[in-house]
Amino acid sequence: MTSSNPILTVTQLSKTFAATKGPGTVALQATDLSVAENDFITILGPSGCGKSTLLRMVAGLDTPTSGTIVLDGKPITGPGADRGMVFQSYTLFPWLTILQNVCFGLREKGMALDAQHDIAHQFIKKVGLQGFENHFPKQLSGGMQQRTALARALANDPRILLMDEPFGALDHQTRELMQELLQGIWEAEQKTVLFVTHDIDEAIFMGNRVVVMSARPGRIKCDIPVPLAHPRHYSVKTTPVFTELKARLTEEIRIEVHKAAGLQAPAV
Ligand SMILES: Nc1ncnc2c1ncn2[C@@H]1O[C@H](COP(=O)(O)OP(=O)(O)OP(=O)(O)O)[C@@H](O)[C@H]1O
Ligand SMILES: [Mg+2]
Asked: Rounded to the nearest 10 degrees, what angle do helices 142-155 and 98-108 cross at?
């Protein structure tokens, strides 16, 4: 589903990391991607195919070698509050409390303390962390720290949320809980999300489009709509639509993982 009115447009974007000697590493081949308002796009691909590089360039943390990224009609030239990031590793400020972490971006914007606290408390509640406002990150579990990171990103009301394997370090049950939580927030708040994952079930369950990237150097190999209704419940995982899509994506990824390893995928 490519919108005629995208909020984010990536055009012929590529990235080569320079090497001290030799030609450098091509991390991303010329790539186009069009993201519509309220899209939840999940990105799958073998390790090293450039998923994080793509997300980091959208975040403004890496500079493209060629191509452009335009958000709401404005070219991206660096980081900005219009993009909220959540990474796999816990990126909270360890010296700040949960409340102060969630307030961080609001404080940077110069918002009055009362207003910061009003907003932060709303999002702390949404992610189920009431009562932990005055705790420090190291006093929380991994899942709770990721919920804090999500609350911090959402509190800034970004135009787009950029999530790079945000649940990758969590155990299976906590991960499913986080998926449901984020689905619920996305359904209620209609956020636009770019979400990198290695987990095919997660990609289908969370996304309204699944983008598959080819082996290194990456490019977008296919962009598949997910025809599952909302609100989504875990029971969708046993429906024929889900299992057929999972079989297709498993095969697409299997081919790319073999390519990335320099092997040919055996026929099924
Ligand atoms: N700062 C950097 N300097 C040099 N090369 C880099 C840098 N960052 C990434 N690369 C290279 O670019 C390629 C793409 O890396 P990237 O981290 O985007 O892959 P990925 O798809 O996110 O992988 P994974 O699934 O393992 O997280 C890899 O070959 C990697 O070694
Ligand atoms: Mg990565």
From this structure: 20
